[in-house]
Design a protein that fits this description.
By secondary structure, the protein is of the alpha+beta class. The chain has 2 domains: 9-193, Fructose-1,6-Bisphosphatase, Chain A, domain 1 (2-Layer Sandwich); 203-334, D-Maltodextrin-Binding Protein, domain 2 (3-Layer(aba) Sandwich), CATH 3.40.190.80. It has helices spanning 9-17, 26-46, 50-53, 70-82, 145-148, 216-225, 243-253, 272-285, 316-334, and strands at 88-93, 100-101, 108-116, 127-135, 157-163, 167-172, 178-183, 188-193, 203-205, 236-237, 255-259, 289-291, 311-314. It has an 8-stranded mixed sheet with strand order 2-1-3-4-5-6-7-8, with helices on both faces. The protein has a 5-stranded mixed sheet with strand order 10-9-11-13-12, with helices on both faces. Helix 2 (26-46) packs antiparallel against helix 4 (70-82). The structure holds 2,5-anhydro-1,6-di-O-phosphono-D-mannitol and magnesium ion (MG).
């Protein structure tokens, strides 16, 4: 990009398409539809706190429409904008128990977490949308569950939008990670971060309140992240409680985010399809990694839509140390 040149997300997606001579433009349009849906969500997130001030009564606003919770609204926005286009055959959302059938001729599968960071939604703290796109596997008709249960290594694209002090969309189609900042005055996402690579780590992000419930390996690892023991890094701690926002900071500033399993809940909290795999794909594209502590997250073929996995994601070396400590302290005890 030349200095001073403005690149919109649409131009950027089209430029990527030109690298694939056989491309029909459908994938390009799908990415653009997602970007558009997130602009609608960003608008709602930005005015969320105005509901009471503007005098919306109870569950109805002044037009008599039901005031929906933001996460429901985000979910409906993404579904409505992608269901009829003919580009996706099936969708899966963190907010929906079953798959969402779409168009029989759709070539793609769209997986999304409409509004991640639910505990922060009501408090004006950064939240996000995560999306992932796979090629369909079924041969015809409306897509099915098997289309959604694909490993992260087969992703065609993944990305997220963080609704923070500004709104940013970050995505990858497998040729690097690119970030766009929404200019609200013109309503366009403009390229602000090109070919993002994770710098040397500065931060670790974890909910320390869970400390007593972690396995010995995880406890040792977090102690090491805090500076105890041989070769321990010098890091500072930051935890927002919205995975998108925590991941985003570590992507740009360098670091590791973890949501480990617990002794009585070894699978942890975060969802493989909607959270771990798409962000794992971005981490890898930016020079980092994502692991469960025992296995590379991108290699896992999901067995159910809402499967959970422990997550260690970010700087490669820091993730590798988590794996080593978990193998040393936890595997020896269970095998
Ligand atoms: P959600 O999908 O209900 O928003 O839950 C996922 C979120 C992540 O964004 C975040 O990393 C984690 O839950 C925070 O959990 P906790 O409040 O236990 O620290
Ligand atoms: Mg979520």
């Amino acid at each position: 990009m030349q200095r001073g040149e403005l690149v919109t997300i649409e131009q950027h997606i089209l430029a990527l398409q030109s690298l694939h001579p056989g491309a029909t433009g459908e994938f390009t349009s799908l990415l653009y539809d997602i970007a558009l849906a997130t602009k609608v969500i960003a608008r709602e997130v930005n005015r969320a706190g105005l509901g009471n001030i503007l005098g919306w009564a109870g569950l109805e606003n002044i037009q008599g429409e039901a005031v929906r919770k933001l996460d429901v609204l985000a979910n409906e926005t993404i579904i409505r904008m992608n269901e009829p286009t003919g580009r996706v055959c099936v969708m899966a959302s963190e907010e929906a128990e079953e798959v969402i059938p779409a168009h029989p001729r759709g070539k793609y599968v769209l997986i999304f977490d409409p509004l991640d960071g639910s505990s922060n939604i009501d408090y004006n703290v950064s939240i996000g949308t995560i999306f992932a796109i796979y090629r369909r596997k079924s041969l015809s008709g409306v897509g099915i569950l098997a289309d959604c249960l694909q490993p992260g290594k087969d992703l065609l694209a993944a990305g997220y939008v963080v609704y923070g002090s500004s709104t940013m969309l970050v995505y990858s189609t497998g040729s690097g990670v690119f970030g766009f900042t929404l200019d609200p005055s013109v309503g366009e996402f403009l390229l602000s971060h090109s070919q993002v690579q994770m710098p040397a780590p500065q931060y670790y992000s974890v909910n320390h309140a869970n400390l007593r419930r972690w396995t010995r390996g995880v406890q040792e690892y977090v102690r090491w992240l805090r500076g105890d023991g041989e070769g321990a890094p010098k890091l500072s701690e930051r935890y927002i409680g919205s995975m998108v926002a925590d991941f985003h900071r570590n992507l740009l500033a360098g670091g590791v985010f973890l949501y480990p399993g617990e002794v009585n809940k070894p699978q942890g909290k975060l969802r493989l399809l909607y959270e771990a795999a798409p962000l794992g794909f971005l981490a890898q594209q930016a020079g980092g990694r994502a692991s469960t502590g025992l296995q590379d997250i991108l290699s896992i073929t999901p067995t159910s839509l809402h499967q959970r996995v422990p997550v260690f994601i970010g700087d490669r070396e820091l993730v590798a140390t988590a794996e080593a400590m978990i193998r040393q302290h936890d595997l020896a005890r269970t095998s």
